[in-house]
């Protein structure tokens, strides 16, 4: 048998894309509550107010003027407000996860639900909400895997302090972590600090107004320090806690054997790996330090920061894997993919999803090998999946065989990495195991789930849940511990 007996099969979600209840139970506003829906053609927009009271919108790539505050426009649709309403469907949803045989369930805790303003004031109702979730999961023998922070920050911290640019946010975040580590001790053992830390750069994600490179890196330094402190706190509160980091891992291949392309791929890959280096090895890699020197980027550090980063290293590497890319030294060949997150070249050997993400199962095995060879600590695939438009047939069935195909090939690759390459893999939680809002485009029509949710891109629908064909397929995979992947 390839997979260990206690392998963590499950699924993954995030509060801002799934939970809804954006003002219920005492929750404060999060930056993501002020970002509109979008589509392949139209980017999601941030709504904000300037000091003169005027309202404006910018894309996530753009900076906000100093002093601008997040604004929820009653005329606009914001997908996070209801999302797919886990807030009211948690019992039903957890029962469906249990029916699929989930051993674990990855979710995030909304910071603004626990600390509505992000400061030291706690919302007991928020804590009680997650108590109910963890108790329900336990009832079904499902282990929670908690992302402490997934792509947002309490809006108050963005408005008042310029988000993670302000060192005080480190203390607020560590207080939030301490609160949840203490409260959920014995209920939650698997944690990870920041979702896709290598992607954090905008107002919605980290609350900074000016997202120029020097500011982004100053905020990033604070994130690294906060993560290290959280890891140490978590271990102190419960030595059984397993606390990981989380990176978006997208291996890049050189477009040709031209050393220039090989070097372009190396630069792409080490940019992502540098985030793992800091959190696993405990120091900034030399190439990053040289880059800062060259570009005149000076990171303000407090005395002891380097030691904190060295001490607060993580127990495992959590990563998302959706696609690979190809790199070229020729700028004319480069396009942007993944919600404009990265420069890449179309790889002629691979097919792409409708959203331009290259489908590459062997790339998953390559990633597992690279990461395990390089870091030698346990790995956890905490996101993987195929975003596609699903069709509900007249009789209610949803034949998502394209999704089954994607998962079959990726699980086979993962199996090979464990069986043939000896990779130490803890678990596998496919993304959006139940349909939820797309982070990149804000659409509902880019679906990932085994479970369908009746909701459209304008927020219309009954929110009713139904099982797709992939639901029954994944159930068999889990039942056989990955031995049976079907035809
Ligand atoms: P969506 C881009 C590329 C790879 C992963 O993404 C990404 C993104 C962001 O768009 O994010 C992760 O919903 C993220 C999830 C997100 C998921 O991938 O754009 O951790 O929040 O939903 C899928 O299709």
TrEMBL record:
PROSITE patterns: GLYCOSYL_HYDROL_F1_1, GLYCOSYL_HYDROL_F1_2
Active-site residue numbers: 383
Pfam families (UniProt xref): Glyco_hydro_1
InterPro entries: GH, GH_1_N_CS, Glyco_hydro_1, Glyco_hydro_1_AS
GO molecular function: hydrolase activity
Keyword Phosphoprotein: no
Keywords: Glycosidase, Hydrolase
Protein name stated in the entry: Glycosyl hydrolase
């Amino acid at each position: 048998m390839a997979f260990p007996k206690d392998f963590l099969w499950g699924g993954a979600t995030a509060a801002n894309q799934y939970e809804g209840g954006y003002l219920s139970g005492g929750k404060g506003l999060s930056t993501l509550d002020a970002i509109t829906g979008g589509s392949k053609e139209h980017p999601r927009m941030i709504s904000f107010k300037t000091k003169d009271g005027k309202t404006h919108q910018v894309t996530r790539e753009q900076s906000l003027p100093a002093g601008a505050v997040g604004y929820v426009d009653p005329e606009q649709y914001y997908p996070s407000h209801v999302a797919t309403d886990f807030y009211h469907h948690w019992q039903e949803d957890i029962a469906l996860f249990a029916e699929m045989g989930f051993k674990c369930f990855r979710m995030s805790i909304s910071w603004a639900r626990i600390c509505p303003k992000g400061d030291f004031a706690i919302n007991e109702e928020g804590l009680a909400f997650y108590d109910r979730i963890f108790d329900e999961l336990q009832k079904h023998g499902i282990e929670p895997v908690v992302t402490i922070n997934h792509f947002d920050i309490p809006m108050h911290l963005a408005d008042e302090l310029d988000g993670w640019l302000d060192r005080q946010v480190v203390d607020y975040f560590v207080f939030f972590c301490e609160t949840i580590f203490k409260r959920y001790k014995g209920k939650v053992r698997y944690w990870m600090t920041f979702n896709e830390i290598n992607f954090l750069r905008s107002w919605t994600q980290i609350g900074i107004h000016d997202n120029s490179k020097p500011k982004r890196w100053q905020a990033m330094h604070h994130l690294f320090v906060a993560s290290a402190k959280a890891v140490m706190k978590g271990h102190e509160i419960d030595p059984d806690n397993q606390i990981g980091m989380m990176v978006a891992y997208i291996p890049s291949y050189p477009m040709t054997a031209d050393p220039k392309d090989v070097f372009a791929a190396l630069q792409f890959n080490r940019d992502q790996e540098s985030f793992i280096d800091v959190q696993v090895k405990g120091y900034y890699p030399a190439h990053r330090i040289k880059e800062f020197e060259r570009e005149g980027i000076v990171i303000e550090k407090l005395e002891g920061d380097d030691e904190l980063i060295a001490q607060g290293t993580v127990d495992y590497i959590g990563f998302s894997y959706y696609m690979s890319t190809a790199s070229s030294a020729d700028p004319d060949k480069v396009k942007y993919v993944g919600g404009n997150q990265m420069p890449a070249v179309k790889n002629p050997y691979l097919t792409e999803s409708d959203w331009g993400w290259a489908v590459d199962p062997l790339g998953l095995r390559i990633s597992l090998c690279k990461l395990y060879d390089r870091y030698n600590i346990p790995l956890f695939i905490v996101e993987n999946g195929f975003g596609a438009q699903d069709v509900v047939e007249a009789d209610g069935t949803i034949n998502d065989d394209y999704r089954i195909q994607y998962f079959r090939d990726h699980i086979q690759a993962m199996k090979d990495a464990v069986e043939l390459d000896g990779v130490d893999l803890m678990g596998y939680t496919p993304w959006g195991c139940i349909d939820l809002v797309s982070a990149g485009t804000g659409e509902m029509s880019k679906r990932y789930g085994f479970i369908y949710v009746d909701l459209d891109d304008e927020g219309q629908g009954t929110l009713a849940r139904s099982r797709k064909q992939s639901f029954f397929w994944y159930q068999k995979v889990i039942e056989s511990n990955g031995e049976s992947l079907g035809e």
